[in-house]
Inverse folding.
């Protein structure tokens, strides 16, 4: 029964596969923009947020970036990514796909951590130094490179071929 539902979904979505890819890429770009910019705001907040006016301005910017751009973009990235995955016939376990998925899960974990930081700054706390936020700002870049390499080059493509009987 579950397989019938998946096959029906696959048949329904295949004509829209390229359009779905377009929305996936746009949502990923939006999400990555937030993941790359928000730590920079954290640096300013940690180092220059000495007056209440500056702290309030940065808190509003961080909150709006997270809630108006990053949360929706992350949700759209996951929904379109899973739909693309389900629309692929015979998508069995490929090592590159597993590594890409782990990278996406790590980006999601980083997103959740950044959301926690937004809340902490909003409550008036300064949780880390500017140097910490400069360093953590490199993590999304590293994960993005890993995910793009996996998605485009498909390294180790035949590693699980024996398991699938190919």
């Amino acid at each position: 029964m579950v397989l019938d539902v998946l096959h029906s979904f696959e048949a329904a979505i295949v004509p829209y596969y390229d359009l779905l890819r377009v929305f996936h890429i746009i949502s990923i770009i939006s999400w990555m923009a937030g993941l790359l910019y928000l730590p920079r705001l954290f640096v300013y907040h940690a180092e220059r947020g000495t007056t209440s006016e500056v702290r309030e301005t940065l808190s509003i910017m961080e909150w709006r970036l997270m809630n108006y751009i990053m949360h929706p973009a992350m949700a759209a990235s996951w929904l379109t990514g899973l739909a693309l995955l389900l629309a692929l016939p015979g998508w069995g376990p490929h090592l590159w796909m597993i590594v890409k998925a782990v990278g996406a899960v790590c980006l999601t974990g980083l997103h959740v951590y950044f959301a926690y930081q937004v809340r902490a700054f909003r409550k008036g706390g300064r949780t880390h130094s500017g140097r910490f936020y400069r360093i953590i700002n490199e993590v999304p870049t590293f994960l993005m490179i890993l995910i793009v390499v996996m998605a485009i080059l498909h390294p180790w493509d035949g590693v699980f071929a024996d398991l699938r009987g190919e």
In short: Residues 2-164 form one domain. The CA atoms of residues 14 and 138 lie 36 Å apart. The chain has a mean pLDDT of 88. The chain has seven helices and no strands.
